[in-house]
Structures are given as structure tokens and as C-alpha cells.
């Protein structure tokens, strides 16, 4: 068993991918072509959104959103951005890169996502501070494939003028239990804007790297599109000192193939997650919560086992042929680039999660393999 075998992932789609690649190669058009346009239209339709802009990767998608809001005057240097304390560092980099201040929000213990209630506590505490931060944005991550959305609190934030940006790198196709601002419940179109990653390990991945920005805001969409192409709105006319963050035609073509199979990929992952959740019964292990009122897509299936038991469990599983991973072994604020400025100085829930999480294989796993993994876990004891 492999934790993830990308060749195996792509094998059932090989003929379609090969045909799509051949079409691009023969076309002689490798940027700004029909595959990119079609992919953007199809991604927007999948999310129920007005606009999708294909870009180079998920980090650049977040960077372009933040830079876009800065150019439009909706964010200013020094503004504070609330962000999940247990997200991947890519969610934080665009905040600090552009001179904004990250405010780390501890996760909800059930969803392991950004806690909306904790965020509101921080906002209200900030209201009464003698030196309040100017909190202008919340960047929420739909971590591991579980939607992170609370419409009531999101509305309250919006009424305060706080932008809400979704990091949808891990949850394409997931559906929240409540509609977002624009009448749909798909993650990636719940709030003001969203960043997507199509890194090869994602539920649908490019054969290289790619990302996208999705929004219903035409002004933000046109700004992001210009910024991604050196800041140009037309040839040799630079509105902004932009970036080179374009998606290429080959990756757009690959992703069009993958997007057609999104529902079946997510359904397969749900089947494996349901087997794990039904058949793992070790009292030492905390399972991720299943939420029947929403659609989770299980980018990762993350169990928890506390203290020094985590490493022993991983060694035990490896000895029985079950590879595992840890997503993520350290919160971003404890990374060397941030810890001097943002370390909380005490143990937090995000630190406890980092010390107890184990990701089980879920991609390329058959139902029979999932049952065997569950059996092996159930036999683990100290």
C-alpha cells in the first residue's frame, strides 16, 4: 500500500489525459488559449460562481487575492487578517508578505477548522482594546476537505466590513450545511473570494502545478486577471506592477479532464472515510467527525492519538505495511520564519493537534484495504 501513488491516480484517466495533452501540443497555443478559457468557465460553473481565473498555483491564488484587495483599497498595509492557527503556512505567507498582520484563530475541536466563535471572541475583545487592531479580513481554510462556514457569524463579520476569503485548496466539491453570500453552498463560492490549489496531491491535481481564484466580484476578477499577467489589462499596458502567475494551456487541459471526474473521486474518498469511521474502534484513537448535513471530500482522513503514542502508532502501522503522514507537524506560527514574532508562548489546541494528528491513506485505497487498515489499528495497544 502507498500513502499516495500519483501514477496510480492518473492511470484510469490516461487515455483522456494523453488526448488532451496531444491536442494542446499540436495546437501551438500554450498560454492564454481555449483550454484556459474553457477550464475557467467549467470551474466557475462547478462552484456556481461568476468568475474563475486560472493561475500558477494555490499560493499565488491567495497572493493575487490579497494584492487585488490592496490595489482596490479594501485592504491597507498594517490591517489585521484572521487566519486558522493550524492551517498550512501557505495561507499565512500572503498576509505577511504584503505587510498585513496575521491574527491566529484557534480551531474548532470537532471540525479542526478555523473556529468562527473564537474569531468573534477575538473581534469583540479587540473592540474593547486600548490599542485595537484594524481587523479587515478573515481567511478561512476548509481543512482536510471539511467545509468551514457559519453563515450567521459570516454575516456579522460582513456587516463590520470584514472581507472573508476562502482557502479552498483541500476542499473542491465540498458542500457546506448553509448557503454562502451568493446563494450556493459549494466551498470556493461561499464568501467574497476563494483560492484553489491543483497541486498534484489534491483531490484533482494538475500534472505539475496550478491554482485558481474564484469570485463573484467582477472588479476583483479583472484586477486578479491583470495582476497575474504582469499587471496588464491589454498588451503592453500595465495597470499594476504585477506578477507572472499564469496557468498554462497544458495544465488547464489536464484539469478539464480531472474536473469531469471530480464527483466520482470525491465519492470514492467518502466511501473509504465511511469505512474507516465505521470500523476503527480503538479507544486510544479519536476519529474525525462526520457531518451528515454537509458534504466532506476527505482530502485527508486525520485521526488523533495523544502524546508519545502518535509516533508509536505510526511505527506500528509502518511495520504492518500501512504508510501514514502528518498534516501538519507544526502550526505556522512555530515555523522559524514566524516563531519569534507570533509564538503564543504556551500550549494551544493547534499545538496539541499538531502533536497528535495522523493522516491515514485515503487516495488509491480500496474498500478491502480500508477494512484491513481498520483491523490493524484496532489491534494496536500500548
| Element order: H for helix, E for strand | HHHEHEHEHEHEEEHEEHHEHHHEH
Please state the CA-atom Rg, rounded to the nearest Å: 21 Å
Low-pLDDT sequence parts: none
Number of strands: 11
Write up this protein:
- This protein is an alpha/beta fold.
- 39% of the residues lie in helices and 13% in strands.
- It is built from 14 helices and 11 strands.
- The chain has helices at residues 6-10, 14-27, 34-47, 58-71, 93-97, 116-127, 151-159, 218-228, 249-260, 262-279, 309-319, 339-342, 349-356, 367-378; strands spanning 51-55, 80-84, 101-105, 135-141, 163-167, 193-197, 211-215, 232-234, 237-238, 301-304, 357-360.
- A 7-stranded mixed β-sheet has the order 1-7-6-5-4-2-3, sandwiched between helices. A two-stranded antiparallel sheet has the order 8-9.
- Strand 2 (80-84), helix 5 (93-97) and strand 3 (101-105) form a beta-alpha-beta unit.
- Helix 4 (58-71) packs across helix 8 (218-228).
- The longest helix is centred in the last third of the chain and has 18 residues, at 262-279.
- The two termini are 24 Å apart.
- The mean pLDDT is 97.
Amino acid at each position: 500500500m502507498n500513502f499516495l501513488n500519483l501514477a496510480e491516480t492518473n492511470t484510469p484517466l490516461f487515455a483522456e489525459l494523453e488526448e488532451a495533452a496531444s491536442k494542446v501540443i499540436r495546437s501551438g497555443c500554450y498560454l492564454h488559449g481555449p483550454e484556459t478559457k474553457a477550464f475557467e468557465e467549467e470551474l466557475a460553473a462547478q462552484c456556481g460562481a461568476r468568475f474563475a481565473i486560472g493561475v500558477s498555483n494555490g499560493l499565488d491564488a491567495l497572493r493575487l487575492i490579497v494584492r487585488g484587495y490592496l490595489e482596490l483599497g479594501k485592504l491597507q498595509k498594517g490591517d489585521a487578517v484572521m487566519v486558522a492557527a493550524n492551517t498550512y503556512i501557505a495561507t499565512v505567507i500572503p498576509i505577511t508578505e504584503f505587510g498585513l498582520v496575521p491574527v491566529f484563530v484557534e480551531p474548532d475541536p470537532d471540525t479542526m477548522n478555523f473556529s468562527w466563535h473564537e474569531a468573534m471572541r477575538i473581534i469583540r475583545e479587540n473592540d474593547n482594546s486600548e490599542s485595537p487592531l484594524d481587523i479587515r479580513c478573515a481567511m478561512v481554510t476548509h481543512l482536510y476537505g471539511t467545509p468551514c462556514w457559519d453563515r450567521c457569524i459570516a454575516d456579522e463579520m460582513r456587516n463590520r466590513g470584514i472581507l472573508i476569503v476562502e482557502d479552498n485548496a483541500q476542499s473542491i466539491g465540498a458542500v457546506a450545511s448553509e448557503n454562502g453570500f451568493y446563494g450556493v453552498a459549494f466551498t470556493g463560492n461561499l464568501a467574497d473570494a476563494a483560492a484553489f490549489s491543483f497541486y498534484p496531491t489534491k483531490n484533482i491535481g494538475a500534472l505539475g502545478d496550478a491554482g485558481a481564484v474564484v469570485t463573484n466580484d467582477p472588479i476583483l476578477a479583472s484586477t486578479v486577471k491583470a495582476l497575474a499577467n504582469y499587471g496588464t489589462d491589454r498588451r503592453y499596458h500595465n495597470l499594476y506592477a504585477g506578477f507572472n502567475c499564469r496557468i498554462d494551456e497544458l495544465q488547464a487541459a489536464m484539469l478539464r479532464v480531472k474536473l469531469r471526474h471530480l464527483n466520482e473521486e470525491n465519492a470514492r474518498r467518502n466511501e473509504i472515510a465511511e469505512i474507516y469511521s465505521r470500523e476503527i474502534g480503538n479507544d486510544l484513537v479519536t476519529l474525525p467527525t462526520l457531518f451528515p448535513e454537509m458534504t466532506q471530500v476527505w482530502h485527508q482522513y486525520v485521526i488523533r492519538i495523544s502524546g508519545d503514542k502518535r509516533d508509536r502508532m505510526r511505527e506500528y502501522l509502518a511495520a504492518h505495511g500501512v504508510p501514514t503522514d502528518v498534516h501538519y507537524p507544526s502550526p505556522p506560527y512555530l515555523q522559524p520564519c514566524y516563531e519569534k514574532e507570533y509564538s503564543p508562548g504556551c500550549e494551544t489546541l493547534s499545538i496539541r493537534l499538531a502533536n497528535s494528528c495522523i493522516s491515514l491513506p485515503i487516495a488509491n485505497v480500496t474498500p478491502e484495504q480500508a477494512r484491513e487498515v481498520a483491523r490493524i489499528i484496532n489491534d494496536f495497544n500500548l
